[in-house]
Design brief:
- This protein is of the alpha+beta class.
- The chain has a single domain, classed as Trefoil (Acidic Fibroblast Growth Factor, subunit A) (Trefoil), CATH 2.80.10.
- Helix content is 18%, strand content 29%.
- It contains 5 helices and 13 strands.
- A 7-stranded antiparallel sheet has the order 1-13-11-12-3-2-4.
- Bound molecules: 2-acetamido-2-deoxy-beta-D-glucopyranose (2 copies).
Amino acid sequence: MALIPLGVFFGGIITGIPVVTGVAEGVAEQKRVNEEANNETRMFKFYIDAVCEGDSPKAQEISKCMVVLRHDKVWLWPRDEEGMPAPAKTGPAPHPFTGFYIQYPDDARSPPELGLVSTISNDPPMLNWIYVDKKTLELRHGNRSTSIEHIVGPWDWSKDERDVILEGFDGFVVVEEEEREDGLKWAVYYDRYEDDLSQGRKVGGRARVKCTLERRLLPEGQRKMQEAEQEKKLQVKSRGGLTTKWD
Ligand SMILES: *[C@@H]1O[C@H](CO)[C@@H](O)[C@H](O)[C@H]1NC(C)=O
Ligand SMILES: *[C@@H]1O[C@H](CO)[C@@H](O)[C@H](O)[C@H]1NC(C)=O
């Protein structure tokens, strides 16, 4: 059994969470679901690159972007040559999505849903859930209390494990919002009802580009180093018991 890096679980360890499915589904099914949800490969950290349909200038611009997190929202931002977020207009580059799949701890969700988490800062090492605001359909990040009312999953990967999908569906749309001071403007939305965000009405008619979110696994060396670093920082801070509660 692989050791789950402590550093990843700021505020409590989450490992080997038993998934309780309905009794009717039987033991074999439950075993399969458990294995899948706790599969170590689900926890390999990845970045996310955007790939857009079409060859419009906007689609081309976005296809050179990666997913970043800032202002509690999920954005696309240009990649540099190393595949990391390019410098911002003001201040530091935004934090790259650096995350993995793990079951969302909520007894009220049955069957349990696979959630998506990402670091939001390296020091202190902090994790947030990635979720979709059920009213605005924008992708956001937040703690459990903030996210629990919203669409928190099930997140998944496509059959080839390349693309990020939500509710079995690759329905992400990038919306050109009013540019922030730091230069962020491409916000990620989820076209849940496959109606182009109510023909754009949801986003005040702003420009929209459909895109695919592609996983890019962290190189193994980098992943190990990051985990070791976070673990070191964390040992001082946390004695976290075995718990699935995580705020
Ligand atoms: C874990 O996931 C990998 C990749 O999807 C798969 O090849 C493997 O069989 C899975 N293992 C278990 C125990 O489900
Ligand atoms: C969760 O996040 C919200 C919004 O940022 C914050 O107000 C709240 O205190 C946080 N809850 C916990 C338990 O940290």
